[in-house]
Amino acid sequence: MIEDNARLYEKLDTKHLENKNAMSALVSLLTALNVEFRTGNLEKENFTQRGAVIAEYDMDVAAARMADSSDVVPAPPLVIANSKYQTIDLADELISNELLTQFFIHGRYDKNAIQSHLDNSIFFLMPDDEPPWKTVINFDELEDSVVENAVERMDQQYSNREVSNPGEMLHIFMLRIMMVQNGHIESSPEEEVINAKTYIDDVLGAGNLPAIGTNFRADWEYDHSHDGFEYWGHGANNAEFKEIYEHLLSARKKALAKTFPMETNRLMKLMNTDSQAFMDEVSHTHRGNGKYAMIPVLSSIPATQFVVTWLESPKEMWPNLHRTFRNRYRSSIHTDLKEEQDWVLEVGKEFQKQISNTKGFESLRIKRSYEFGVEPIVNEIAELKAESE
Questions:
Q1: pLDDT at 236 exceeding the cut of 60
Q2: Contact (CB, 8 A) for 326 and 376
Q3: Which of 14, 43, 86, 150 fits a disulfide with 132 by CB distance 3.0 to 4.6 angstroms?
Q4: Distance (Å, whole) CA 202 – CA 206
């Protein structure tokens, strides 16, 4: 534990080290968590959503008490560990869940990440220089005048649709719901969910909403925290957060779809010039990053145009093209790429037309390419549709 603290000490700036209150809180928190982890009382999964775990336990206990239930609410390991410390809150976000996992599980101490997170803490936060939601979320440790000023600035941002970062939006939405629940805003949680969806739609309509990423983690990028802070009240049972988050995901996917026309033009050029690069972008391979492997981008191309582009490409590229088609859909046509099922069927019909309208080796070549790459997927879709009828 001394070694862990020493490694952390090396990553801190002078301003952090000179703040005695910050260092006392930091060392106390890390030492307590380290003790609980090293003795086996806490495990890796206990370092995720610490605040939500304790808050949900407290709500379950309160609900059982109100119901006059004799059932004992089982305490999670983090709650049991937290009860041992009178002056330390093991859910304190002075150090984020992500950083704790890096420290204790992976042994990594990222200087920039550590300093950035501490700078966001109440010990170093300068309210006038930070996004107002950061001040509001730290209201416990600030004077009312400072918090009210931040709320006013946050309301102005909200009204003017100034914030477009998904994580910041979610913080603002959840803080507004918290203020509604505590009588600070005359509204209801249900109304705030509707308002949040309208906000998201407005930002999307203005072209300011960041498109969702194309990697498989994109759906979870902002699912529980942003910029080192968990969302207020976010937990497994928070229906408001879930509804807002699902709407945000849908809107960000629409923002991504708006980029498809430009991207499909580029992808069709690759079909004619570099079929290997095309394969690496739209399917999973050991070479490329599969940028669009799980994204329904190809259905933005008219089926006829796609098939014509395929057949006009150099013949030596055809094997890569039919392998790409088969690899792209064989495990995803019923999940991530189910939106492209009808498009694939149209591609199949266009191939059949080309086979019928050509002769000799040309017709045979098209037929073999269709049978190897397209037909198996067409048949799979036909089976799926038959099962659902």
A1: no
A2: yes
A3: 150
A4: 6
**Which two three-digit tokens encode residue 182?**
């505590």
Amino acid at 102: Q
pLDDT, tens digit (0-9, with 9 covering 90-100), for 184-216: 999 999 999 999 999 999 999 999 999 998 876
Residue 233, classified by CB atoms within 10 Å of its CB into exposed (0-12), middle (13-18) or buried (19+), is buried
Q: Which residues pair with 226 in a beta bridge?
A: 229
Residue 304 sits in the same domain as residue 374: yes
Residues 187, 96, single domain; the answer is no
| 241/312 same-domain check | no
**Of the residues 221, 256, 291, the one at which a domain ends:** 256
SS3 223: coil
Query: pLDDT-derived band of residue 349, with 50, 70 and 90 as boundaries?
Result: very high
- Using alpha carbons only, give the angle 52, 240, 76 rounded to the nearest 5 degrees: 20
Pull the structure tokens for residue 289: 């990053």
In the block, residue with structure tokens 């209201």: 139
Inter-residue contact 345 to 378 (CB < 8 Å): yes
Q: Is the pTM of this model over 0.70?
A: no
Distance of CA 250 to the CA centre of its chain: 12
HSE of 361 in the Cβ direction (CA atoms, 13 Å)? Answer: 1
Q: Which residue has the higher pLDDT, 63 or 8?
A: 8
Total domains, the chain: 3
What residues contact 176, with CB distance under 8 A and at least 6 apart? 158, 185, 187, 192, 195, 196
Q: 263-291 b/e with 16+ CB inside 10 Å = b? A: bbeebbebbeeebebbbbbbbbbeebebb
217 near 268, Cβ under 8 Å?
no
Residues 245 and 220: beta-carbon distance below 8 Å: no
Containing domain of residue 234, as a range?
A: 125-256
Within this chain, do residues 139 and 71 fall inside the same structural domain, yes or no?
Answer: no
Residues 6+ positions from 357 with CB-CB distance below 8 Å: none
pLDDT digits (tens, 9 = 90+) for 26-85: 999 999 999 999 899 988 888 877 877 887 787 777 777 777 777 778 888 999 999 999
